[in-house]
Amino acid sequence: MLTTQDFNTFNFIDFVRQNPDQHECFELDIEQGKAVFHDAGIIEFKPGQVSDQYVCLSCGVHGNETAPMEIVSDMVRDILVGTQTLKVNLLILLGNPKAMMQQERFLEFNLNRMFNHHWKSYLEADPHCYEALRAKRLEEAVKDFFEQSPDNARRYHYDLHTAIRASKHQRFAIYPYLDGREHKVEQLALMQDCGVNTVLLYHKPGSTFSYHTSHHFKADAFTVELGKVKPFGENNRTDFEKAETCLRQLVANNYHFNNDRVIDDMNLFAVKKELLRVSDDSHLNVDDDLANFTEFKQGVELLSDPQEPYVIESDGEAIVFPNNKVPIGQRMALLIEPVSLG
Ligand SMILES: [Zn+2]
Predict the structure, then answer these.
(1) 108: CA distance to ligand 1 center in Å?
(2) How far is the CA of 29 from the centre of ligand 1 (A)?
(3) DSSP per residue over 12-38, as a string?
(4) What is the rounded CA–CA span in Å between residue 204 and residue 309?
(5) Domain ends where: 194, 217, 251?
């Protein structure tokens, strides 16, 4: 299927395009260890020397978010060829091959709402639901990968995205809910080194891929928004250079994690409140395409409702993901506020 002669011209994205459904697992010996092609869009690299670092890099969970796929594809080629050093156990995932082929965010459902076993209810409704089957397969892949790691090993998962919506901060990351564990300065510092200076600390369990690996495998995990959505070939790769450099250092095991970094200049936000639609009259007084992290002044009536309006309580409160078109009981926006780790 693939031989060492093909490495120089190997293109992970094209390979997934040619094998979007599934393929037989096959292993290749490479100069620096082993490459295991598990399934469509799922490659595991095992380094020649034992490592207690387990790094999962996922891209293309949304099929039209091309820049991270291009970065990861180049890294895969360079590991195969030997120009990218491999010193960690590495799992590479291209999340949604079929949506990628159509340059769509997803075929039927948002894949990044299906992890932490949420795919089960979608499969009950439709046993052929592509995204649900894919979420199930990706969960198996991360389980097989992280379960090889000893208890005291380090596990990381960076789920790489680009955003459609405008944002006051072009690059930002979501630090999933930690189930009581503490946020790590070294991880925030890594985000900063990736060029991501805004992080939202999430407040509750969810169905995202990064929460899944954080929750089930105690991985240091993030959803990382690295820039704007553009078609394949139109990304300005220098916009992503910092992130790519850090990811390559991680894979070479020469990124220096620093728990003592001063991160005062980082924009850290925590969720203050979920703004829910409580009645037919609930209305957010902003457009749905409002840029994420838009801040408001104290006194602004952000959410109108006869019973439960929300008026901004202090300057600097901001919102992300506004949506006026949700049914009663669902979330219209997340209200966030600046915090420090203290
Ligand atoms: Zn995305």
Answers:
(1) 15
(2) 33
(3) HHHHHHHSSS----EEEEETTEEEEEE
(4) 23
(5) 251
The predicted pLDDT at position 268 comes to 96
What single string gives the DSSP state of each residue in 58-88?
EE-SSTT-HHHHHHHHHHHHHHHHTSS---S
Active centre residues (catalytic): 225
Q: Is residue 53 domain-shared with residue 176, that is, in the same domain?
A: yes
Phi and psi, residue 247, nearest 5°:
-65, -40
How far does the centroid of ligand 1 lie from the alpha carbon of residue 146, in Å?
23
Q: Does residue 325 form part of some domain?
A: yes
Q: Quote the DSSP letter at residue 97.
A: H
Question: Is pLDDT of 1 > 70?
Answer: no
Ligand 1 centroid from CA 305, angstroms: 31
* CATH classification at residue 297: 2.40.50.630
- Same domain? For 299 and 177 the reply is no
Range of the domain at 82: 4-251
Distance of CA 258 to the CA centre of its chain: 22
- Nearest Cα neighbor of 173 from 199, 193, 195 is 199
- The answer on pLDDT for 247 being more than 70 is yes
Any domain includes 260: no
- Which residues contact residue 79 at a Cβ distance below 8 angstroms, ignoring those fewer than 6 apart? 30, 32, 35, 45, 86, 90, 251
236 in the same domain as 161: yes
User: Rounded to whole angstroms, how far apart are CA atoms 141 and 133?
Assistant: 12
Question: 251, 286, 321 — which closes off a domain?
Answer: 251
* Max CA pair span of the chain: 69
The total number of structural domains in the chain stands at 2
For residue 36, give Cα distances in angstroms to 141, 220, 225: 12, 24, 28
**pTM, rounded to two decimals:** 0.95
State the distance from the centre of ligand 1 to the C-alpha of 6, rounded, in angstroms. Answer: 31
Identify whether the C-beta of residue 331 lies closer than 8 Å to the C-beta of residue 320: no
Q: For 192-208, how does the pLDDT look when each residue is reduced to its tens digit (9 = 90+)?
A: 999 999 999 999 999 99
C-alpha span between 75 and 160 (Å, rounded): 14
**Mean pLDDT of all residues in 92-108:** 97
